[in-house]
């Protein structure tokens, strides 16, 4: 009885360690891919063309209630403005209120209203929290790898990892399919951002959402991020298993 109980506890402990190892690797992969994609502005130039954001700006720029002539700005300015936003949220929100655009008559205006600056500051704070969480996951990953290596524990098999990942993705995918991507997007915002901070902006009141053609661009970025992160996760798991078996 004691031997069986000991075996059961050992199996449970091994399973928990394997789960933590996989989750920490997954979070780390999403973290590295986020900061990697930030270096290329999350593929904005590609999304800009695929989503016809230029036409979107031409349509909604003239109807903005607070800023004038944004529809007269160029493709290069649009790329730079998005890059400025990415740089700011990656640096804790510094410089958001100073982002400006210039029209052909050399009139310079700030891109973001106060409510938009507050919202993007919330996003920057969320990224900071993500950085802290991911750093903890990276440390945990290194510790667990050391435990497996030192105690010579058999690492999770590729089959187990693939099965677990597939189940998780299936559950998430079905949830998004049932709720709808847009509904899920809005629900997430209500849970993440402070109640008294505006996070939904109509195109007619926000050049930020016009520039991004929100939420369409977010869907594009999410898909790109998922592809890169899961590819990196798979590569990381393969390299980790090779290391632990060596």
TrEMBL record:
UniProt KW Ribosomal protein keyword: no
Pfam families: Lit
Source organism superkingdom: Bacteria
tRNA-binding as UniProt keyword: no
Signal peptide per UniProt: none
TM regions (residue ranges): 12-34, 129-148, 160-188, 217-241
Keyword annotations: Membrane, Transmembrane, Transmembrane helix
Name of the protein: DUF1461 domain-containing protein
Provenance organism: Ketobacter alkanivorans
């Amino acid at each position: 009885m004691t031997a069986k109980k000991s075996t059961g506890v050992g199996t449970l402990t091994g399973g928990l360690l394997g789960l933590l190892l996989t989750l920490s690797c997954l979070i780390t992969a999403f973290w590295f891919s986020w900061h990697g994609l930030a270096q290329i502005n999350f593929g904005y130039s590609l999304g800009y063309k695929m989503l016809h954001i230029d036409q979107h700006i031409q349509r909604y720029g003239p109807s903005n209630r607070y800023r004038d002539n944004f529809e007269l700005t160029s493709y290069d300015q649009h790329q730079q403005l998005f890059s400025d936003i990415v740089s700011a949220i990656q640096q804790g929100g510094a410089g958001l209120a100073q982002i400006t655009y210039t029209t052909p008559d050399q009139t310079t205006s700030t891109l973001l209203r106060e409510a938009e600056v507050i919202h993007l500051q919330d996003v920057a704070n969320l990224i900071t929290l993500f950085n802290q969480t991911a750093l903890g996951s990276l440390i945990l990953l290194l510790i667990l790898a050391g435990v497996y290596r030192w105690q010579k524990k058999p690492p999770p098999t590729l089959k187990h990892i693939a099965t677990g990942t597939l189940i998780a993705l299936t559950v998430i995918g079905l949830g998004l399919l049932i709720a709808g991507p847009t509904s899920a997007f809005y629900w997430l915002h209500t849970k993440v951002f402070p109640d008294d901070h505006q996070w939904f902006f109509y195109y007619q009141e926000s050049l930020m959402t016009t520039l991004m053609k929100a939420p369409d661009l977010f869907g594009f970025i999410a898909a790109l991020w998922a592809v890169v992160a899961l590819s990196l996760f798979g590569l990381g798991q393969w390299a980790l298993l090779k290391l632990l078996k060596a």
